[in-house]
Amino acid sequence: MLTSRGGFLDYSRFPRDLGKSTVFAAYAAHGLVPVLTDYNPSEADGVENNKHYLVADENLSSLDLTQLQQIADNAHRWYQDHNLIKVAKFYGSYFNPDVKPDFGN
């Protein structure tokens, strides 16, 4: 992934769960453009088509490098609030009142 610009993913078996995908998270964490085989309705997790990922279709070829970088940047920003440390603190707060979730900081 170190020299990649994008990553390809088929997550069609799990609609509405793209925000839970470790592969999507890895692409986002490394600043890649996630490219999916199909639209994945994951807006409830804050993941939007053409903002955080692309679908491999005819529209893909119409995007320039600036637009592709913007999508990679959006995915990376999304990941910053969903990384392992923040998710662990969120769930840890249910079991330990001394652990405080760290959202948006």
Structural summary, described in words:
- The chain has 105 residues and is an alpha/beta fold.
- The chain has one domain (6-95).
- It is 34% helix and 10% strand.
- It has 3 helices and 3 strands.
- It has a 3-stranded parallel sheet.
- Helix 1 packs across helix 2 (65-80).
- It is elongated and about 50 Å long.
- 21% of the residues are buried.
- The model has no long low-confidence stretch (mean pLDDT 90).
Topology:
Blueprint: E1 6-9, H1 22-29, E2 33-36, E3 54-55, H2 65-80, H3 84-95
Parallel strand pairs: 1-2, 2-3
Helix pairs in contact: 1-2
Bulk shape: elongated
Low-confidence stretches: none
Instruction: Count all strands and give the number.
Output: 3
Structural class: alpha/beta
Which descriptors apply to this entry?
single chain, alpha/beta, elongated, 3 strands, 105 residues
What's this, in brief?
Helices cover 34% and strands 10% of the residues. With 105 residues, it is of the alpha/beta class.
